[in-house]
């Protein structure tokens, strides 16, 4: 079995900046988690099933067009979950539709929480650090085109590693 995830990577310069910020807060796992918007949370699959998973993801990508993402400000899932995140303010619906398409077929699963696209910047830290992240990145802003997503595999030694890129090539809407 291998643990996979599917996500839209936040590009440079913002992705590395946010990952460094998260590491600087003391999140011991941040060095192994590239900055991203999750489409499919960690999911265990038999390695023999990976070709079917990749075929499914290629079909999902081919059916969806690229779209613009705008990140701005911070929010939190507290008290339900000790997470502070950068908010997706443009591209929410496109992320939701893409995530739903990804979580079909061989990746069909029930989510623990309702899907809400976001970029985690602090997770399972003390309240004072969560408050600090919420305040310090309140003015954060970035815009980029989401023209692909990545399949990641989890390596216990180094964290999440991209294994394949899927280009969003579906027709643009009217």
Helix content: 25-40%
Strand content: 35-45%
CATH superfamily: Cyclic phosphodiesterase
The CATH topology turns out to be Cyclic Phosphodiesterase, Chain: A
Number of strands: 8
Summarize the structure in words.
The mean pLDDT is 94. The chain has one domain: Cyclic Phosphodiesterase, Chain: A, CATH 3.90.1140.10. It starts with a strand and ends in a 7-residue tail after the last strand. A hairpin with a 3-residue loop joins strand 7 and strand 8 (159-167). It has helices at 14-24, 50-63, 92-102, 127-136, and strands spanning 2-9, 36-45, 67-76, 83-90, 118-123, 141-146, 148-155, 159-167. The protein is an alpha+beta fold.
SSE blueprint:
Layout: E1 2-9, H1 14-24, E2 36-45, H2 50-63, E3 67-76, E4 83-90, H3 92-102, E5 118-123, H4 127-136, E6 141-146, E7 148-155, E8 159-167
Antiparallel strand pairs: 1-2, 1-7, 3-4, 3-6, 4-5, 7-8
